[in-house]
Specification:
Blueprint: H1 9-14, E1 22-25, E2 29-33, E3 41-47, H2 54-60, H3 63-79, E4 88-90, E5 106-110
The chain binds guanosine-5'-monophosphate.
Amino acid sequence: KVTYDKSNIFFKIIRKESNANIVYENEHILCFKDIFPKAPVHILIIPKGHFKDIFDFSINATLEEKKAIYDGFAKVIKIFDLELDGCRIISNFGKHGRQEVPHLHFHLFGGEKIGKMVS
Ligand code: 5GP
């Protein structure tokens, strides 16, 4: 069983105990601006459920929770008019993936040509 650390900042953002610039929200997900944007558009898409990382989510999330993530991608792509130019969506997992916040999140980068996939 995966242990979820409730002291992480995204846990507080979901509970509205900490502020975030929210661009879209529904029952299952929260989409908000990254505090240190690495592209003109840098949005974090997270489930509201307590999942540590993409592996935990892949094993333990319901189909509804999983679908909500894809719906979130579509919403953010539409909100920022990225349909034509595209964007990059990634999720860092664990030590080798250099994940810093232990609550699953997807980075969506857009608004300009994003750099090399791995440098
Ligand atoms: P990771 O390295 O875990 O994939 O990415 C964590 C991301 O969360 C980083 O891009 C970082 O800038 C962002 N971040 C960390 N703390 C906060 C915060 O308090 N608010 C927001 N909006 N983003 C944060």
